[in-house]
Amino acid sequence: MVYRLLLRRFFKSPSVSSPKSAPWWALTTVGYWVFAWVVGSAIPNITAMSNVIASALVIPLTYIIPPALLLGHWVQRDAMTADHPWRPGMEPLSNRADSFKALARWKRGFRPNWYFKLVLIIFIIAGLGFFILGLISSITRVKDSFGAPGGTASFSCQLPAVDESGNYGNLTTFD
């Protein structure tokens, strides 16, 4: 996409299917890795920061929200089996036998295929635990990495090997 949008448009590079595009593609690859190195060096401890993002966004979007949406859909679908068919011109919600305030509708929603719904509930609870533990550990890791003696800085060449006294120790010997 970068090749097509930037190099083809602004630098008039050849089509990707052309044999002449190989040097341009190599230039794009080298440019990508240089950009990745600059970003990785400019942001201190980018690994810990990416762990926070993964814990806060990727885990819920993968393990919590999809099963919760599926469970909600199945419960609503099964709960409306006692409702009257909807016809054009009816008042909204007038075809329902009861509402979700009634325990009977919840029972109707959970009773069919209850074992699949139970597995989804267990999966959601496990995902919430995974989310909470991941978030706590990644935030603790970020806090520890920035609070360590010597700290991390942008574009630093310091080694992260710090002993208990805050010294870097003898790092020049290779045994």
Question: Could you explain the architecture of this structure?
Answer:
The chain is built from five helices and no strands. It is an all-alpha fold. It folds into two domains: 42 residues; 110 residues. The chain is flat, with a radius of gyration of 28 Å. It starts with a helix and ends in a 28-residue tail after the last helix. The mean pLDDT is 80.
Quick synopsis:
This protein has 175 residues and is mostly helical. 61% of the residues lie in helices and 0% in strands. It is flat, with a radius of gyration of 28 Å.
- What fraction strand? under 5%
Low-confidence stretches: none
Tell me the radius of gyration. 28 Å
In round numbers, the mean pLDDT is 80
Helicity level, as a percent range?
Answer: 55-70%
Structural class comes to: mainly alpha
Q: What is the global morphology?
A: flat
Number of helices: 5
Order of helices and strands: HHHHH
Total individual domains:
2
Count the beta strands: 0
C-alpha termini separation: 48 Å
Comma- or semicolon-separated keywords:
175 residues; mainly alpha; single chain; 2 domains
Secondary structure topology:
Layout: H1 2-10, H2 22-42, H3 46-79, H4 103-110, H5 114-147
Helix pairs in contact: 3-4, 3-5
